[in-house]
Amino acid sequence: MSAAQDLHDPEREQLDTQWLYRQGDLVLGPLTGHQLVEKLYAGQVTGKTEVSATGPSGFRKLEELDAFKLHVSKAAAKQRVEAEARALRARRLRQKLFAAAMAAVVLGGLGAGAWQIARYSSVYLPGVKRDELSIEVSTPVITVAKHSRPEELFEYPGEPKQQTAERPSTKPPETTPDKPEARPDSKPEKVASAAGSKPDRRPTGSRPSGKVITDSDGLATEVNYDQAAINRVVKQSQSTLYRCFKEEAERRPGFAAKVPLEFTIGNDGRVAQLWVDHPQLKKGPLFDCLLGEMKKWPFKPYKGERATVNLAFTIGKK
């Protein structure tokens, strides 16, 4: 009896039967039931795949057939385990990539910071060698700014001295007053002598609020800028120009020169104009670097006549 049941086992018959299966709009096959099971575990078909035995029978889902139900469950469990393993591997890979990126950012930041510190130390810190470049600074001289400073007033070594027009005299032409005719019966008039008297050149109006200085012509000028404060700012900030001279020395091997500077401080406390009294450095990268740094110097705003500062740097090799 059992042998007869084995001969008519429906599950075995389904595994031995030839099957057609659908993938989208295509009908593929035929395949045996054993081949369908292999595709099931390989993930090429699922329990929702519709199959049909060769013949007039219609298509049914694979999970509805008794011979394939157990295999569908096992294949689904296998697919879930493999999906979780793939997700875990992908998550670990992302974590490794993130850690590597963070390490690269940290190392890059440390490298950039070390470079900035080394660059700052080589330029600004006292006692640190600046590639054997010697920089000496003269004491600044502060004067009242001129209204104009034409370039032709510069005199450079090896160039002929240019003649400038003499300032016209402001004194009126001397005239000899006519002597009055002497009258025998008249008394001589008393004439007040003006010899030796000087015109009063002091500023008129209200009492000046700033310091009043007198130039060589006797003209009094009121200045409101604080020379001591300007000297302090220049002394504290002049080292910021070392970088400009160092870069110029890199552009010009063997660079050594005395570089006189003259700059005007505007009433807003910022450097308004700069002159470099050197024939080869009047314009160019060094001039641009110096002016850019000096515009950052924090002078105090003031009113009245503008201040001009003369400063000289002597550059050479140690």
TrEMBL record:
Q: Where are the transmembrane segments?
A: 97-118
| Keyword terms of this UniProt record | Membrane, Transmembrane, Transmembrane helix
Compositional bias of kind Basic and acidic residues: 176-190
* Region (Disordered) location: 148-215
* The protein's name: GYF domain-containing protein
Protein species of origin: Archangium violaceum Cb vi76
